[in-house]
């Protein structure tokens, strides 16, 4: 739904974005950066992980949930739900029209 609030990034994703800003990783491949991100994540102290990354991410998630609850009461949300039902029905109908090889 293009009008719905966007789900926030997880603590690990935010941390990964932070790691990718490291100039020493500028010319590294995606796989190398992913390995380095995982290594650095595992090396974080429990306190740093919780206070610097997880708590803010949890706060953003809570805010998103509240925004989504408000969004569910809007006409845009209701319209999109109708669209999804109609889309699923059309998809189901088109599948039933395809002949089976059996």
From TrEMBL:
Q: Which GO terms describe its molecular function?
A: DNA binding
Keyword terms, alphabetized: DNA-binding, Nucleus
Q: Which residues form a coiled coil?
A: none
Name of this protein: HMG box domain-containing protein
DNA-binding region(s) in UniProt: 5-72
Cellular-component GO terms for this entry: nucleus
HMG box domain ranges (all copies): 5-72
- SUPFAM superfamilies named in the record: HMG-box
Origin species: Dendryphion nanum
**Pfam families, sorted:** HMG_box
* Record Gene3D superfamilies: High mobility group box domain
What superkingdom does the record give? Answer: Eukaryota
Per the record, the GO terms for biological process are: regulation of gene expression
């Amino acid at each position: 739904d293009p009008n719905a609030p966007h789900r926030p990034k997880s603590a690990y994703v935010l941390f990964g974005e932070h790691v990718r800003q490291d100039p020493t990783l500028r010319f590294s491949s995606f796989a190398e950066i992913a390995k380095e991100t995982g290594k650095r994540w595992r090396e974080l102290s429990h306190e740093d992980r919780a206070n610097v990354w997880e708590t803010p991410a949890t706060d953003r998630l809570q805010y998103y949930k509240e925004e989504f609850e408000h969004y569910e009461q809007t006409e845009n949300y209701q319209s999109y739900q109708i669209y999804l039902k109609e889309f699923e029905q059309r998809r189901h109908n088109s599948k039933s029209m395809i002949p089976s090889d059996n």
